[in-house]
Amino acid sequence: MRKPAVIRTLVASLIWMSLAAAQQPAARQQVTRQGPVSTYKELEGKYPKLKEIQIPKVETYTLPNGLRLYLLEDHALPIINGRALVRTGNLFDPPGKIGLAEATGAVMRTGGTVSKTGDVLDQELESMAAEVETGIGETSGQANFFTLQENLDKVLAIYAGVLMHPAFRPERLELFKNQTRSGIARRNDDPAEIARREFANLVYGKDNPYGWQQEYEHVDRIERADLEKFYRRYFFPANVMLAVYGDFPTAEMKAKLEAAFKDWNNPQDPVPPFPAVKADRKGGAYLVAKDDVNQTNIRIGHLGGLFKDEDYPALEVMADILGAPGAFRSRLVQQVRTKLGYAYQVSAVWGAHYGHPGLFTLVAGTKSESTVKAIKAMLAEVDRLRQTEVTEAELTAAKEAVVNSFVFNFDTRAKTLNRLLTYEYWGYPKDFIFQYKKKLEAVTRQDVLRVTRKYLHPEELKIVAVGKAGDFDAPLKDVGKPVEALDITIPQPKQERAQADAGSLAKGRAVLERAQKAAGGGEKLAALKDAVVAINAQLAGPGGSMAVKQKVQYIFPSLIRQENELPFGKIVVYSDGRTGWLKHPQGQTPLPGPQLQQVRGELFRLTEMLLLSDRDSTRTVNFARKDKVGDREADVIEIGAQDGLQVEVWVDAASGTILKKGYKGEAMAGPQAKVEEVYEDFREVNGVHVPFKTVVFQNGKKFAESQCTEFQYNTGLKAEDLAKP
Amino acid sequence: MIRVILGFCLLWPALGQDLKEFEKSVTEFTLANGLHFISVERHEAPVVSFFTYANVGSANDPKGATGLAHMFEHMAFKGTARIGSRNYADEKKSLEAVERAFRAVEEEKYKGPRADKAKLEQLGKAFHEAVEKAGELAESEEFSRVIEQSGGVGMNAGTSNDSTVYFYSLPSNRIELWFYLESERFLRPVFREFYKERDVVREERRMRTESNPVGKLVEVFLSEAFVAHPYGQPPVGWASDVENLGATEAERFFQTYYVPANLTIAIVGDVTPKEIRRLAETYFGRLAKKPLPPPVLTVEPEQQGERRIEVGSPAQPTVLVGYKKPSQYDADRAVFDVISSVLSGGRTGWFYKELVRDKQIALDAGGFPDFPGNKYPGLFLFYSFPTSGHTVEENEKAMYALIDKLKTDKVDDETLNMVKTKNRAALIRKLESNSGLAGELASYYAAYGNWRQLFYSLDEINKVTADDVQRVAKKYFARNNRTVTYLVAPAKEKQ
Description:
The complex is a heterodimer.
Chain A: E1 59-62, E2 68-73, E3 79-86, H1 100-110, H2 118-127, E4 131-136, E5 141-148, H3 152-164, H4 170-185, H5 191-204, H6 216-221, H7 224-234, E6 240-246, H8 250-261, E7 284-289, E8 295-303, E9 305-306, H9 312-323, H10 331-339, E10 343-350, E11 352-353, E12 359-367, H11 371-387, H12 392-404, H13 413-426, H14 432-441, H15 445-455, E13 462-467, E14 483-485, H16 502-519, H17 522-526, E15 530-541, E16 544-555, E17 559-566, E18 569-575, E19 580-584, E20 587-590, H18 593-604, H19 607-610, E21 620-629, E22 632-640, E23 646-652, E24 658-665, E25 673-685, E26 688-698, E27 701-713, H20 719-723
Parallel strand pairs in A: 2-6, 7-13, 7-14, 9-11
Antiparallel strand pairs in A: 1-2, 3-5, 3-6, 4-5, 8-12, 8-13, 10-12, 15-16, 15-27, 16-17, 17-18, 18-19, 19-20, 21-22, 22-23, 23-24, 24-25, 25-26, 26-27
Chain B: H1 2-11, H2 13-24, E1 26-30, E2 36-41, E3 47-54, H3 68-75, H4 88-110, H5 117-136, H6 142-149, E4 153-159, E5 164-171, H7 175-187, H8 194-210, H9 213-225, H10 239-244, H11 247-257, E6 263-269, H12 273-284, E7 307-312, E8 318-325, H13 333-344, H14 350-358, E9 362-371, E10 378-386, H15 392-408, H16 413-430, H17 434-448, H18 453-463, H19 466-476, E11 482-488
Parallel strand pairs in B: 2-6, 7-11
Antiparallel strand pairs in B: 1-2, 3-5, 3-6, 4-5, 8-10, 8-11, 9-10
Helix pairs in contact in B: 1-2, 3-11, 4-5, 7-12, 13-18, 13-19, 14-15, 15-19, 16-18
């Protein structure tokens, strides 16, 4: 699924053609044969020599502010593309704010510039069929543009504005955060994605930027100031390489870029190197239970290496023979797919990166019933590689596939430019691709065996299987590794707690005592046995507002019965805090987990009980901060229970009345909502000060308003009456 | 020829000259057996892209044997008598034995409740052994290995409801290799390893459909929308159909649909027309002329009311809404493309602005004007992935509000102009890559009998008016004409 606002990188469109006058084709020395060949072998070795490749020269400049320019003319089509590489990446995310780099990269564009909102940019760019997109990935930031030649000046002005003066408008950050939360909620929908993610996180380790995972709580913590700070730290001219190619004269383009970026000046220290990888080398099998699938997604592997490793070419040959993706000739395809029919997709890669080790990975999808057989077949292929040399035919096929298709590294001018940019970014030699080819051509069968034994470690392999374990052909442990079950439940955000010390705890206690007194005093509150409340409420629903009549009965501290009259019928909920049931027009069901959790929260937050928190040793009361409710000064205290439940209570600094409560509550799906209840219309019941009106907000939006029509304490309720369906 | 250039000069003065050059670089011819070739000379780099378009897709699958077109696509990589065999004389006999063993199992199965279980088991075992024996004589994956080893890149194939396509690129000194391999592929394919491949396809179905919530949803959606027309059949085939496919019927399917006049080939890159012509005659001239296969004659009956269906899944919710619309041969075809741009083009499309940006009820929402194909009347599909805390019902309602706006308000000139500019830029970008261009030219020729339709379609879009948009929206986006499908949590069991 396309994520909105993701970088639509222009890289895919950097392929060029010639519409201009035809150049002379290479003279072919082919002898014209009469009739078709009867086998392709007749053609082999007799192909005419391939025409020399023309490698275009890229003009490079460094502006006085340090911005490096890479320019390449290409007049085939009346279009111009630009691509900036920025030394940054999500490897620089702060631990508590995972996702900050991505947020910065996205909102840099969607949040508009100082002079134009994001919406204005959208309208202006799309009316020219132009694009300006930014994004930050793991090890680089990118800012790209595409334009028809005729609109170059207008698009360049927008592009420079986005790079130099992004405004990070808060509403676009909010949009991005909401989208990110929804993305987290959806991250367990696709089993292949689960396998990919869990495997990578396990190998790199979940405690560092290579393997950690963004959660709701990180999203919640990211603020506009963080984005601005992150942007300022990394987006400075000396940290940016800008490549532009297409239909322009170089001198003219250079002048335009100089003018556009001459005032950019944001001196910063050089960006430090990316953190080092510290992988956990322990082997094992990991099971992710997913019962709504009939195919198991399998990932097997361990840490890989770097492109510049001396043995990389031999390892590449090894992985190619084992399971080159998309290549039918590989051993994995021939065995697991063609011979056994266990998988549609099966492949292996020797994962390498420019700057840090990649992942050596075997991938397959197989029906639940052949899971263990398929894993064993894959492991057997890894072992076979370590036992004996590959065949000469395999080695030749792997090498020739690279050597004979080498020309496709140069078939467009843009590829040359992009390669130059990448090598410079990573400090690789300009001719790295030719060095690689030379080393690859020299790889022998002995080399392949040597590197296989040196770099492939069967005992260190981690095996991740995502599937319906009940249908597996054998227990997963039969693959010969200890099995660990992985829990991929998406954690709800933890509520932030204020720092507690002796002073703040004492202050919290004092505020509570003041509130207790204002409500009528500890003794009156302690004398309350039960309550019956009738409420008329108006709920804001997705399809418009809805009226609800509610009757709630409590026996303090932990019995509740709630009868709701809704437009579509009556719903009764009962709970004793540990279990409960739900009765609706279609029948009765035990209270499901999330709803039970909600009821527990309700019981915990009963004002009558909160006010007596000083008499409950399992509860903590901590002063958090001063705040305002409307124009009234309030002291905010945090009341927490041992099971993690927590609520913030706003106590009127003048009167001691409870004005508001705030907590994390259940939303329909996805992350919990921030709920606030604001109280009004206080009246006296049995000597206790009670609010008759409550307004409820979810994530800052008004969600419900309720008015008491009846309120009684100590009516003599019996527990068994509440529990009657 | 004159028409396209004039049209373009008016719209696109800066490019007129280049387009004349473009036409000069194009050569096309039809062999005596009916096979049509289009080639484009581009000598900048010594590479060539090849694209074969077979005018047969899953819509041509027979009832009860769905997935056959796709199964043949997989078989097209299995080689020929001379490619992919260790000893073809022996292998041929073994493959015939496999078919006999397969038939024997089938015949016993046909007895239904009277089938002899012990005999079935024994026949099944014999069939399995025959498959293994034949497998030993195969030189697995030789066909694709030769392509890869010769420097072939981007090799793949695809089956849609309307067509099956095969493509890859080679260094330009190996053009003859492609002519040899591609002509052999359609001259005398051998259906070796068929039954293993059937398991692979079954696995492909598990991956793309059965274990993928959106895959499941689309399959149910289409089967609900189409009662009679095969657009309601999944291209990969129903699970039980795939499990029962036989090599003999696959071969019959091949003989019927893979006739030369039903194929179009486009070649773009460092080639000379003369050489292409000579090699085409030499290699593809060997394919015997045969009558064209029948098109799909089943016509979907007019829909009489809204259709609505749910798919229960623990995945996050999704909603699809499809309106029946005419095929690519309808006079209003360009209007649908304009509507698609207005509603779901980029960040200015109405769906993004309203559902994603302002109301924040959708993670992503948009539309596809030709779903699942456009050779026959199909659907205009709208989709939305609700954000957390928002429902499919809420999204559906919001989508209708935007679709209704097309009927009540007239699209303004600024929006229409933007759509036209975007389409112009999109056309330029289609010319960028050899392989992309080859695909476009072959597809347009196969669909319209003229590759220039690729360019005419821009003229058609430029003629669309605000009145057209309103008229078409009113005519087709009607409640009685739509199918709605939800992916939602499974309904709780009643007690």
